[in-house]
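Run log, item B.
One chain of 135 residues. Sequence copied directly from the ordering sheet:
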Amino acid sequence: MEQTNLYSDAHLVVAAIRILERRNSVPPSIDNISEFLSFSPEQGNYICRKLDETGVIEIVEGPFGTRLFLKNHLALEDIPKNIKTSSMGEELEKFKNSRKELDQRVKSIQAEQAEKKKNLFAKLEDQLKKHLEAK
């Protein structure tokens, strides 16, 4: 499979916005762009969000859905040409790693809570014994 980069994909998205806007007389949605370019919805969203961050396009959410508008097509040339578009496998691996870290934090918090609970019951038991011995 051919490796794509963000620069090339950005040019494709901008061209697709122009074509679909001309063909349908309405600004396209991210789904329209993804379908037109045979991108997965995730990849289409990723590229459009990156283009929105760089100021190339503007994503407008309204009552009729999310629409894409060209904002500054010249900003395309500011995108580095050697940055590869991350593959789904890489993104999935990042997500799995973040989930592992989160699971480890949850386990450590649960262990701390269990230890606090154990200490509290031990303290209460000692107080109860002292109270019973005092009587």
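Observations after the first pass:
- The first strand starts at residue 57 and ends at 62.
- The chain has a mean pLDDT of 87.
Flagged for discussion on Thursday.
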